[in-house]
Specification:
about 140 residues, about 50% helix, 6 helices, elongated
Length: about 140
């Protein structure tokens, strides 16, 4: 079985249906993945780039919920391999429900999947995530 790494533009052409040649080709490739005729994989950075592009205020302006609704069905395809694949429903839940940045939602989901749920950060968005303890590093006493 053929296996491909899927780049960001494959997903974007599929979701946006904005190119007369690339969009149908991307849709056909993803259909082949869905049907199990092709195996595919992608990276967490590709997913982050998709979110960044689709949420950009000067281009597509999609809401977190719209992005979640586009991505989760595709990410759940059995023949699409992705590191931390099982975390993506939680990632998008945090991203949509808490109104935090996608990268913070991703990192929060990673931390929540660990035994020790502490994070060192100055970013107060992590305080919104139930189950995580945020600690700000302090300067040593003088």
């Amino acid at each position: 079985m053929e296996q491909y790494f899927l780049d960001t533009n494959i997903f974007l052409r599929h979701f946006l249906n904005d190119h007369p040649v690339y969009s149908p080709a991307a849709r056909e490739l993803l259909r082949a993945v869905e049907q199990g005729n092709v195996s595919a994989w992608t990276s967490d950075l590709v997913i982050a780039e998709i979110v960044f592009v689709l949420s950009n205020k000067q281009t597509y302006r999609l809401s977190p919920a719209q992005i979640r609704d586009l991505l989760l069905p595709v990410l759940s395809l059995p023949h699409l391999k992705l590191a931390h694949k099982k975390l993506y429903p939680r990632i998008f839940d945090l991203y949509v429900s808490l109104g935090i940045d996608y990268i913070d939602a991703y990192n929060a989901a990673l931390v929540l999947a660990q035994k020790d749920k502490q994070i060192a950060s100055f970013d107060r968005d992590f305080d919104k995530v139930l189950g995580i303890t945020r600690k700000e590093p302090a300067l040593p006493p003088q």
